Amino acid sequence: MRGGWSWLCAGAVVAVAAFAVADHAHADAEQQEGHGPSLRRQAQPVAAGAGLAQAGDAERTRLLVGWHDKLACVCAADGQVAIDASRGLGAAACPCPYAAKVRADFADALAGLPTADLADKRKVAETLESSFVPLAPEYERAWRYPAADYAWWLDSVRCVCDGCKPTIFFSKCQLSCAPAIVYKLRARIFFAVGFSRDEFLRYYLDEYNADKPPREHRSIEWLLPNKQRERGWGVPAAGIGLALLALAWMARGWSRKRAAAPVAEPAPLGPDATVPVVPEDPRLRRLRAQVDSDDEAW
Predict the structure, then answer these.
(1) 84 and 45, same structural domain?
(2) Is residue 287 part of a domain?
(3) Is 33 contained in some domain?
(4) Using an 8 Å Cβ cutoff, are 36 and 43 in contact?
(5) Does the reported pTM lie above 0.70?
(6) Is 1 exposed, middle or buried (0-12, 13-18, 19+ CB in 10 A)?
């Protein structure tokens, strides 16, 4: 009997271990495909000098120069990096030597895109996230994005971390949350290259729904808890308003009915009218006779 229990326990341990290994392998496969808990794109290799080899393409150079204004001026001296978002990365606005290196890295990172795709802001943003940003730590901060759009993203959009509450926004999300880490950087890049709030929100929603069955898909409104809250308060408020209007209408009708109702008045007596005679109570007659006799006695 003991031997049977030993074999049974050993089999259970092996099964649990095999399940854990399979689950870990599945999670790794999901991360490599861009799904699962990590949304970060894998860093793509960049060939140094690849952008310089394409410098003879005038149209490509024109498009690259147009994108330079989306990045801040990045300079470095004595090992200290300075980022000036008031100026773009263009050669005229940012002539420091380190900025020339940043522009070269920028061209190298986009070298894999055909010239026609350099006009596609989505392809450019995705390529810069996976190829340009990993080249240097300061490249995560070197973006000229609208501050109001980024603040709206942090304070209005739901974070989809597994451990977060349903109404947690990106500004309150945990530092260990992978979607928060990825999308805070992604928001800066995408807003910098020209994405609107609605476009980026749709991009975020499409990626969230990509690996889920249709019955689990979410809507834009679900990503905006503030709008849901406003809509939730609007329904009872509208109901209360309608109820008050109905009561006011009913009270007005009642007051009109009371004002219109005639007041009953006694009809005037005519010349031939007779006043009905009420018979006298015998007890009252006896009392009056007794009073009269007492008066005579006095």
Answers:
(1) yes
(2) no
(3) no
(4) no
(5) no
(6) exposed
76: phi then psi, degrees, rounded to nearest 5: -145, 140
| Domain carrying residue 211 | 145-236
pLDDT in tens, the chain (298 residues): 444 545 444 444 444 344 343 433 333 433 333 333 345 567 777 888 899 899 899 999 999 999 999 999 999 988 899 999 999 999 999 999 999 999 999 999 999 999 999 999 999 999 999 999 999 999 999 999 999 999 999 999 998 876 666 668 888 876 667 888 899 999 999 999 999 999 999 999 999 899 899 999 999 999 898 754 444 334 444 556 666 776 776 777 666 666 665 655 555 655 665 656 666 677 777 777 776 776 665 5
Mind giving me the DSSP string for 41-99?
PPPPP--TTHHHHTTT-HHHHHHHHHHHTTBEEEEEETTEEEEEEEEESSTTT--SHHH
Q: Exposed, middle or buried by CB within 10 Å (0-12, 13-18, 19+), for 141? A: middle
Start-to-end CA distance of the chain, whole Å, equals 131
Name the nearest CA neighbour of 200 among 126, 256, 130, 134.
126
Cα(146)–Cα(127) distance, integer angstroms? 21
Spatial contact of 168 and 223, defined as CB atoms under 8 Å apart: no
Among candidate residues 236, 257, 272, the one where a domain is terminated? 236
Domains: count for the chain: 2
Q: Domain for residue 254, yes or no?
A: no
Give the Cα separation of 242 and 189 in Å (integer): 47
If 0-12 CB within 10 Å is exposed, 13-18 middle and 19+ buried, where does residue 102 land?
buried
**Cβ partners under 8 Å of residue 87, min gap 6:** 72, 73, 93, 94
- One-letter amino acid at 157 equals V
Asked whether residue 27 is domain-assigned, the answer is: no
